[in-house]
Amino acid sequence: MGKVFEYLSEHTGMLLFSVSLLFVQAMCDLALPDYMADMVTSGVMNGSIPFIWEKGAKMLLVTLLGTAASVLVGYLAAVVSAKVAVSMRRDVFNKVSSFSNAEFDQFSTASLITRTTNDVTQIQTLLVMMIRLIFYAPILGVGGVIKAVSESKSMSWIIGVAIICLIGLILFLYIVAMPKTKLVQKLVDRVNLVTRENLEGMLVVRAFNTQKFEINRFDKANRNLTATNLFVNQSMAAMMPMMMLIMNATIIAIVWIGAKNVSAFSLEIGDMMAYMQYAMQIIMAFLMLAIMFIMVPRAAVSASRIKEVLETEQSIKDKKNAERFGPDFVPTIEFKDVDFTYPGSDEPVLHSISFTARVGETTAFIGATGSGKSTIVNLIMRFYDVTRGSILIGGKDIRDISRRELRAKIGLAPQKGLLFAGTIKSNLYFADKDASQENLDKSTQIAQAQEFITSKPLGYDEPVAQGGSNLSGGQRQRMSIARALVKSAPINIFDDSFSALDLKTDRNLRAALGQHTASSTVLIVAQRIGTILSADQIIVLDNGTIAGRGTHAELLKTCEVYREIALSQLSEEELTR
C-alpha cells in the first residue's frame, strides 16, 4: 500500500481538510445523545416546552452541520480517489508502453489489462471508503467510549465486554477471509485470459469444434472466481448479523442494568438513553473498521500488483547522454559477431551472426521456422538487446542511440499486420500524422493496396475494425506495408510481410518497391524463395547460425540448406531461369 500513499501525498491539502470535516461530523454525532439526554431529563420529565424547543433547535442545527460535513467529505473522497486512479492508470499505461519484449514476457496481456483496470478500480473503491470511514470510525469509537464512561462508570464493563467481542469477531473474519481475498485478483486474471483467448481465437475454436472445451475451460475459471468471491462476501455477510447480535445484547444489558440504576435514582433516564446511543455509535465504528479490514487486503493485493508493474526494471534503457545520428547519416546495418539468448532461456538462438546490409541493396533472410530470422529484426529494432557482440547502424552502436531516434529511421512491416480501430487513413497516418495525400497515394500504390481502397465506398475514410478484422489477410499485409512506406524511412524492414499475397501481387509489389527504395537499405524476411530471388544479398539461417550468404545463383551452387529450401518450393527449371 506504500505506493498508494505516495499518490495520496499529492493531495495532502484535500485529505487534511477531509479529516477536519470528519472531526466536525463525529463531534456533531457525539453531541446529539447529550442534547437528547438533556431534553428528556430537563424538558420532557419537567414538562418544559420552551426548553424542548431550544434543545430541539440546537439538535437540528447540529444535525444539519454534521450532514453538510458528511456530504462535503463524500465529495472530496470521490475527487481524491478519482485523481489517484487517473494518475495510477496513466503511470501504469506509460510504464507498460515503455516495456521491451523481455518485460512483456514476464506479464501476460490479460494480467496487464486487469492491473490497469480492475486493480486500479479496487484501490479507488477502497480510497473512497477509507477517507470516509478509516478516519471517522476511530474518532467516533474513541469519542463514544469517553462519552459513555462519563455518563455512567458503573456500566462501563458492558462497553468493555462489547469491544472485546467486536475485536475478536473482526480478527476471526480477518484471519479466515484474508487468504481468499488475495486469490481474487489472480482468478480475475485467469477469467480475463480465458475470455481474451477465446474471443481472439473464435474462428479456430469453431473450425475445430472445440466450443464445448472452451466453455468448460471458462466455466472452471468462472466457478473458481465465483466460489472465492462467495466465500469472501459470505464472510462479510456473516459479520453484519453478528455485529447486530452484539449490539442488541449490549442494548439489552444497558436497559436491564440501567433500569435498576434509574429505579435506584442513581441514573437519569435521559443519561441511560444517551448511554445506549453511545454504545450503538461504538459498535457502528467497529462495523466500519470491520468493513475496512475486509476491503484492505484485496486492495493491498491490487496495490502490490500495480507496484510490481511500476517498479519493474526495464531491461532496455536509453543511455543518459544518448547519441544522435548526424546529418551525414548513412543507413548501413552491420552485425558484428552477435549472439542472443532470450531471457530465461539457457540456449542462445543466434550464434556469431555477422553481416552488412548496405544502402541501395536488398538483404534477405531465409531459413526454417525458428532459425532466428524474426529475432534479427527484433534486435535491430531494439525490442531486445544483444547478449554478445554489437549492431551498428550508420557506424554507431544502436545501444548508444536513443530508441526513439533509432526507430525514427526504420519503417517496419511486422510479421503480423496489425491494424488499429479507425479508418484506412488513420492507420496510414500512424506512420506519419503529417503525411500528404500524395504520399498516401504513392505508398498504397507501391503496396498494391490502392485498388481495394478505391473500391471501398468511403475510400480512405472506410472504417477499419479492431485488428483489421473486416479486411482479408492479404489486405492487412498490404496496408501494413503501405504504412511502413508512408514513413519514408531510410531503412525498411519487411518481416515475412508478403506471405499472404498471391504471386502476381507479390511480384508487382516487389517491382514497385525496388524502384521506391533504391536509395534506402531494405531487409526482407521471407519463407518463399520467389520473394527473394532478386535480392542483392541472401543470408541463409540454420539453427541460429549463418549457413550461407550470397545471391540466389551463388547459393544454389554453394549452400545445401538453401538448395533444399528452394527445391521444396520450385522446380530445378524455375530456379535456374
Q: Which secondary structure elements does this structure contain, and how are they paired or packed?
A:
Layout: H1 2-8, H2 12-44, H3 49-97, H4 101-104, H5 109-134, H6 136-151, H7 156-200, H8 202-207, H9 211-263, H10 269-310, E1 333-340, E2 350-357, E3 362-367, H11 373-380, E4 388-393, E5 396-397, H12 403-408, E6 410-413, E7 422-423, H13 424-428, H14 437-446, H15 450-454, E8 463-464, H16 473-486, E9 491-495, H17 503-516, E10 521-525, H18 529-532, E11 537-542, E12 545-550, H19 552-558, H20 560-567, H21 572-575
Parallel strand pairs: 3-10, 3-11, 6-9, 9-10
Antiparallel strand pairs: 1-2, 1-4, 4-5, 7-8, 11-12
Helix pairs in contact: 2-3, 2-6, 2-10, 3-5, 5-7, 5-10, 6-10, 7-9, 7-10, 9-10, 14-16, 19-20
CATH architecture call of the largest domain = Up-down Bundle
Helix tally equals 21
Q: Give the averaged pLDDT, no decimals.
A: 83
Total strand segments: 12
- Assign the CATH topology of the largest domain: ABC transporter transmembrane region fold
| CATH homologous superfamily (4th level) name of the largest domain | ABC transporter type 1, transmembrane domain
CATH class of the largest domain: Mainly Alpha
User: Cα-atom Rg, whole angstroms?
Assistant: 36 Å
The structure class reads: alpha/beta
Ranges where pLDDT stays below 50 over 5 or more residues in a row are none
Query: What's the story with the biggest beta sheet?
Result: 6 strands, mixed
Hey, roughly how much beta strand do the residues contain? 5-15%
The termini sit apart by: 70 Å
Dominant shape: elongated
Helicity, as a percent range: 55-70%
Count of the domains: 3
Strand order of the largest sheet: 6-9-10-3-11-12
